[in-house]
Design goal:
220 residues; TATA-Binding Protein; Immunoglobulin-like; 2 domains; 5-stranded antiparallel beta sheet; 4-stranded antiparallel beta sheet; globular
Length: 220
C-alpha cells in the first residue's frame, strides 16, 4: 500500500525493501517539482507481528511536512479501496492489462517471477448481465513497432519462470480459458516475451451467443 500511495502522489519508485518482523523495510521514490527540483519521498516500514507501521521521512533539514501530510491522507483513502475494485455500473465490460515492475513483483509476489520475460496481470471486470469467456490465446500485446505477440505457453513459459515462490504464485494464478460470471471480476497472470508494449488486443466472447467482442486497451 505504501508503494501505491507513492505512485498516487506522483513519485517514481526507485527502491523497495520488503519489511518483516526481523528487519525494517521501506519504499523510496522521486518526483520532479514544478520548479524543476527533485524531491525524494521515503517511507520506513516496521513490523511487530501484529501489523505494519508506516513512517514517512521528510527529505529536508527544515521539513515542511507536506510529504507526511500528503502521504497520510492518500494512504487513508487508498486503504479503504479493495486491491481489485469491483466493476462500476458505467464501465460495463472492462479489460485491464498491467505489466509488473520489479518493485511491484517484489511487493505483490515476494520476488521477481521471471528470468527476463514480462509478467502481466490481467483483470476482467464484467458488470453486465451476461456471462462472458476469456481465452488467453486471443490476447495479444502490441509493441511500439506494431508487432503483436501472444503469451508464452508450454516449455517456453516454464523456461521463463525463475525458481522461487514468486514464480510459484504466477503458476498458481496463471490465467487460463475461463468464464466470467455477470457482475464479477476475474484476475490472473500471463507471461510475455520481454519488450516495450503499447497496447493489448483481446477478444471476449459472449457465452450464450458465442459472439466475440474485440477490445484494444492500453498496457499500463
Amino acid at each position: 500500500m505504501a508503494y501505491r500511495t507513492l505512485l498516487t502522489l506522483g513519485y517514481t519508485v526507485t527502491d523497495v525493501t520488503v519489511a518483516s518482523v526481523e528487519r525494517t523495510g521501506g519504499v523510496t521514490g522521486t518526483r520532479t517539482e514544478p520548479d524543476g527540483s527533485t524531491r525524494t519521498g521515503r517511507v520506513v516500514i516496521t513490523c511487530d507481528g501484529k501489523g505494519a507501521i508506516l513512517s514517512p521521512v521528510e527529505d529536508s533539514l527544515f521539513p515542511d511536512y507536506d510529504f507526511s501530510r500528503g502521504f497520510g491522507y492518500s494512504f487513508k483513502v487508498l486503504v479503504q479501496r479493495p486491491d481489485v475494485e469491483e466493476p462500476r455500473a458505467a464501465l460495463g465490460l472492462q479489460v485491464l492489462v498491467h505489466p509488473l515492475t520489479a518493485q511491484e513483483a517484489t511487493l505483490d509476489l515476494g520476488g521477481v517471477p521471471t528470468t527476463g520475460p514480462l509478467a502481466v496481470r490481467v483483470t476482467v471486470r464484467n458488470n453486465t448481465d451476461r456471462a462472458v469467456s476469456l481465452d488467453p490465446s486471443r490476447l495479444e500485446l502490441v509493441d511500439v513497432g506494431g508487432d503483436a505477440t501472444g503469451p508464452l505457453t508450454g516449455p517456453a513459459l516454464q523456461a521463463a519462470l525463475a525458481p522461487g515462490p514468486a514464480a510459484d504464485r504466477v503458476r498458481a494464478e496463471l490465467l487460463g480459458a475461463r468464464r466470467v460470471a455477470p457482475h464479477t471480476t476475474l484476475a490472473g497472470y500471463l507471461v510475455f516475451p520481454a519488450g516495450s508494449y503499447r497496447e493489448a488486443r483481446v477478444t471476449i466472447e459472449d457465452v450464450e451467443t458465442g459472439e466475440g467482442e474485440g477490445f484494444v486497451t492500453p498496457v499500463k
